[in-house]
Amino acid sequence: MGRKQAKRGQESPGVASAPPEEAESSSTSEGEGSQAEQGNGCVRSDGKAPSSESSYVARPGKKKKIFESRLSILTALTTNDPNMEAFYHIFMVLVLTAIVYSVLKDFVEDGGVDWTFYLKGFGPLEQQLLSCIIWVPLQSAAFLVYPAFKVWETLHARLGRAADATCVCLVLLYNIVAHFVMVYSIVHFDLPPVSAVFLSVEQLRFSMKSYSFVRENAYKVLYPWHKEDSSGPAVWYKGQMDPKVGSFPQYLYFLFAPTLLYRDHYPRTERVRKRRLLSHLAKTAIAVAFITILNKELFDNYPVSGEVTRMELTLTFLSCLLYGLVMQFFCGYFFLHCWSNLFGELLRFADREFYSDWWTCTSFSTFYRKWNLLVHDWIKAYIYQDFKDFFKSKTYNKIASLPTIIISALFHEYVLWAPLRFFLPVLLIQYGAFGALLFFFRVPQSSKFWNYFLHTSINCGVAIMIFCYATEFYARQRCHKELNFVNTFTPRTFECLW
User: Fold this and answer.
1) CA atoms of 276 and 342, how far apart (whole Å)
2) What is the pLDDT of residues 254-264, one digit of tens each?
3) pLDDT score recorded for residue 225
4) For labelling, which of 72, 221, 329, 436 has a CA lying 20 to 30 Å from the CA of 96?
5) Which pTM value belongs to this model?
6) Higher pLDDT, residue 225 or 98
7) H or E element in which residue 170 lies
8) What is the Cα gyration radius of the chain?
9) N-terminal to C-terminal alpha carbon distance within the chain
10) What count of Cα atoms within 13 Å lies in the side-chain half-sphere of residue 278?
11) Contact, 321 vs 459, CB < 8 A?
12) What angle do CA 266, 18, 31 make, to 5 degrees?
């Protein structure tokens, strides 16, 4: 994209600043609007200390995110620095070369390209269409959250707490039924992994978005306020929320906008910039193609039949170790940069800070906060902060991040449970156990060694995760048994491979 075009409507230089620390010091006033990040284990790309500017407005016991007009950090870096832009172009050329090489190699060795292998994870066209058909009622159910909420708003004025209790029960019922339909559809129609993960992630997104809408608007009904107030929501949101419940078009926009936090008003770009839109679309396609090729390199020679030796498994793990960090980076690049920016541009959503400069971090605590800001902001608003408000204990504040890490790990396991048809707590152990311990491990923010340690640990963790899940998946292909709820929790790796 052109440098002049990218600078048009560009946000403040604070794009690279990290989100605020989750564990506030007990000596810090709750009413302060920002905090200096001391010892957060992260250094900026320019070598300077992270900015203390925060996108959160504080209130007693709460902090509300304020959306601003800003670019994704990768876009900002390549726009403002010609050297970074050149390196990015070289990087994309290498990726395209790898894609062309893989296709030509198959053509030369096999006399043609086996497209069925590349699309194996998506399944036949019929199953791909079936996944889209199942997605429609799940999305429609998310639409119905709005009229149901308006009915509760009317009944609340007449019935009070009886209507409130009914509303809570209906919210729980909606999530239970929707997730049951999703899991049942995946298992009953035997959807392939990629199509199944698509449905699983989408339903989780619907649940998180609908919960945010209900939470943010229920406060308006339960505790009415006015725009002229000198405190409360009139100040907390800086004009991004209205006293009245949001309209259906606002809710509809929120369902498709690349954010999980509901606001009545978001910063918007003046227009849809077609060149940027096409650029993000092309990068999305390239990222998907490269991830598919990585999967082919990993699993093309996976021992799925015959006798499996320890040497074969060792070589397979070494392959996972080689491609682990690349896979993790490109999955993040695809979803958090390409896909999110694509929808952001299409919907004129101006706040593109979907991730921060996680690659400069030296501690896991800061990495967890910067890797995925979309999910981090939701967890911070509705799990982390709620738990702190519930316990209201200085002792709990010291370990307040631990429950959120464990809950997040369980969410990740749940997303994979139905698509893979088994529960293997690798992510739960890595993320909820070792990750939780490393979260509280503080290191000097200027130490380059700990940056090496961080990326080495992530690479090993991703390699172990890919190896364990893939090995269990292929072991179940070798020793097929009737699927039921109980045997999804019984691993078959040792039973079927040795």
Assistant:
1) 8
2) 999 999 999 99
3) 79
4) 72
5) 0.81
6) 98
7) helix 161-188
8) 24
9) 54
10) 5
11) yes
12) 75
